[in-house]
Amino acid sequence: MTRVIWKLIKDKLIFPFLELDIKYFDLDLPNQDATDDKVTIESAEATLNMVFDFYGVAEDERKTTVIEVFNFKGAGGVALSMYNTDESIRAFAEASMNTAYQKKWPLYLSTNNTVLKKYDRRFKDIFQEVYESKWKSKFEEAGICYIGNKMCLQPQISQYTLTGFVSIGLMTPILVCLDRKTIEAEVAHGTVTRHYRVHQKGGETSTNSIASIFAWTRGLAHRAKLDDNAKLSEFTEKLEAACVATVESGKMTKDLALIIHGSK
């Protein structure tokens, strides 16, 4: 459903008012395989400090393919494999602390190093090293704090945040690169496949589009900042304000209506 919403936003809210040169790259796994992953490299090289990321879903669910990687005998099992270099962890720490400093927000590092003693501990140690050597004085001057090694996993923190902001349909993650200039704006709710299957059959859906709209506006606002484009910045502010005003006037999608008014 995200693809449908994305096109509606482009056609009705963005393209009629802005002249944009957008480059598209299909990062679906079949296309990555077909291009020997060159499409991923091409998309990275084409990035001009701003990326929009949206999710698609197979037109026909019968096309979905299940690939058996390993068949656990007996009662079954689960496998987990993760790796990161110190360089990438350090870049993550720098980007996280820069974002917190720019927004004047406290920064919390969530780890589970009592279980993943070496893997998560490496994150904790490098984050602390970066903070102490480069950011501690800046954070103190800004009146914000950094707290690491909180024994709370990321999914739990996401749920806490989600509870505070009502609906996942209102969440727009912004990913910041180490260069402090390049960002990626995306939606948090994924493809909304269940709604899309209803849409394919001609049924009526009530899908929250606010996160997708704000993915556009947050990305464009960053473009405006980089280019010192006051008119573009004003456009993004007005579009976001219009979304808020629409909901506050009582016009909203089903997910918000259920939270505000209940099921009756």
From TrEMBL:
Protein name (database record): Cytosolic isocitrate dehydrogenase [NADP]
Pfam families registered for this protein in UniProt: Iso_dh
Record keywords: Magnesium, Manganese, Metal-binding, Oxidoreductase, Tricarboxylic acid cycle
Position of the signal peptide: none
GO MF term list: metal ion binding; oxidoreductase activity
Names of required cofactors: Mn(2+); Mg(2+)
Family per similarity comment: Belongs to the isocitrate and isopropylmalate dehydrogenases family.
Alphabetized InterPro entries for the sequence: Isocitrate_DH_NADP (IPR004790), IsoPropMal-DH-like_dom (IPR024084)
PANTHER family for the chain: ISOCITRATE DEHYDROGENASE [NADP], MITOCHONDRIAL, NADP-SPECIFIC ISOCITRATE DEHYDROGENASE
One GO term of the biological process aspect: tricarboxylic acid cycle
Superkingdom of origin: Eukaryota
Domain Isopropylmalate dehydrogenase-like: start-end pairs: 1-259
